[in-house]
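Memo subject: From amino acid sequence to discrete backbone structure tokens
Action wanted: Derive the backbone structure tokens from the amino acid sequence.
How to read it: Take the token row as a discrete description of the fold.
Attached in line: The record itself begins immediately under this heading.
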Amino acid sequence: MNNIKKISAALSGADAGAIFVTSGQNRYYATGFRSSAGDLFICADGAAALFIDARYYEEASRSITGAEVICSNDKPLLDLENDFLAAHGVERLAVEEGSLSYAAYRRLEETLKPAFVPGQKLLRDLRMVKSPEEMELMLAAQRIADEAFTDTLKLITPDITERELAAELTCRMLRLGAEDKSFDPIVVSGSLSSVPHGKPRDVKLQRGFLTMDFGALYRGYCSDTTRTVAIGEPTEEMARVYNTVLAAQTEAIRAAHAGMTGRELDGVARQVIRDAGYGEYFSHSLSHGVGIDIHEFPNCSPRSEDVLAPGAVISMEPGIYLPGRFGVRIEDVIELTGDGCRDLTALPKELLVFCA
């Protein structure tokens, strides 16, 4: 994967001669190379350079195309960077203002010669639209998570703890080819299922709902899935809540297409839940972008005016949470198209019931 040319071309509308890429996620997006350090500059004239220390120089030189790789051992790093920017006539430099600390921003502003302009949006907007190569990686990550979850269901008994189940799920994703988990899995049961981001406990699975929110990281790209199952026969109210959440997700997926705003799509799911009498218990937004980061642009919330673009990949995760009692969330990941969407998640959604 290499997006240096794409980023360079986007600079023509950014009123900047170059962009300074500092975050690891955006360096990976640009070059396909992952490291914990390195300053990447991409110029509007097509030139690019990664300034990196000796720890990563050999691997970066071998892996990166489209950018010069410069080791910063013999001359102060900032002198090398200023020389490069001057050689390409850069007077205005776009920076990742949202990824830099205040102290780092001030230090760089004082030492790099070009004037700084915001560059976060340029990278954010580019990353929102996934290429076919990115979609292949995201689909592979999703398939790993799907298979791991299906296998983990066999372990659900009253004798396993939430923490043990979370560990088993993670282990299965790694065995199936994930390089890591996308985030720490949420595996919560009983009354704790009413906490959207509850942490797994050293307690055996409690009667009621069991919510599992998990994802696999594959070659730098994330998946994100939530499924809720029942431990013991669900009550009539539990079944009603589950079916309401499922109906909300189904309607939102049916309605989703590029060109909508995040607020409009969120409203589709929220209206179903509101009509069922549970509006006040849907306490978070419907959706977020997924990609290199588990939370990316765009967002779908009651206040979001983000316009959904074709090729964007977003979660679809309505939920109802009755405090101190139980909660339900069902989450798929979809790819938006001009006239609809493609659901990347292959797991079934009927309510599964396990013996208490």
Q: What stands out?
A: The first strand starts at residue 18 and ends at 21. The chain is about 35% helix and 25% strand. The mean pLDDT is 96. The chain has two domains: 4-128, 132-354.
